[in-house]
Design brief:
Order of helices and strands: HHHEEEEHEEEEH
Radius of gyration: 18 Å
Shape: globular
């Protein structure tokens, strides 16, 4: 089933294209691969970046209260020829969406791989990114409501989260997990050890 990639806000895309066309913006970026290229560059696969603010997964599988998330930006993969070489982030300012920075590294290839993998699933999804800053973790969030506003909405229990590499120890990258399965594991990892009682540790996700 095809992924339903949501359209990015027009100002966000324009700001990235303007940065790509600016020699100074590209030269000042901490992206050696991007600076070394001389051919045309395109910004593709816009993904809304949500941050997990609160984990409250009690009885999530039974319709319990979902975690709180907030939109922090839009991320574009930068293509040169047949490959993605970097990514560009945008952020919301008082004047609207604006280019933030370019970057490269493992999450660029990991995002591309996870998206290709998601294309082979038997269900249509709206792809998003969900970050868990406390665990230094980034996941591809496959949202079942393909026509939903990409800037809003909460992870549903049947949505899938695909950890990107590098993933935290004990969590296998690229393995799709239902939200109701993975978030309790993350909750345990974020719970102070002193607050845990015997027998409450969740099983590893991998």
């Amino acid at each position: 089933m095809p992924l339903h990639v949501p359209p990015a806000p027009a100002p966000a895309l324009r700001s990235v294209l303007a940065a790509l066309a600016s020699p100074s913006a590209v030269h000042e970026a901490h992206t050696p691969a991007l600076r070394a290229l001389h051919g045309p560059l395109t910004a593709e696969l816009p993904l809304p970046v949500h941050v997990l603010d609160r984990l409250n997964t009690s009885n999530l599988a039974a319709g319990g209260r979902p975690p709180r998330t907030r939109l922090t930006g839009w991320r574009f993969l930068i293509r040169s020829g047949e490959r993605y070489v970097a990514a560009a982030d945008t952020r919301l300012t008082a004047d609207g969406w604006a280019f933030s920075h370019f970057f490269e590294g493992p999450y660029v290839a990991a995002t591309e791989r996870a998206l290709r993998q998601a294309e082979s699933l038997g269900t249509s999804y709206q792809p998003r990114l969900l970050s868990v800053p406390e665990l230094y973790m980034l996941t591809l969030w496959l949202h079942g409501a393909v026509g939903a506003d990409a800037a809003a909405g909460l992870p549903a229990g049947e949505d899938l989260l695909v950890p990107l590499a590098p993933a935290p120890p004990g969590i296998a990258p690229y393995r799709p997990h239902p939200v109701a399965e993975l978030l309790p594991v993350l909750t345990q990892r974020l719970t102070p050890a002193a607050a845990q009682t015997p027998g409450t540790l969740a099983a590893p996700a991998a």
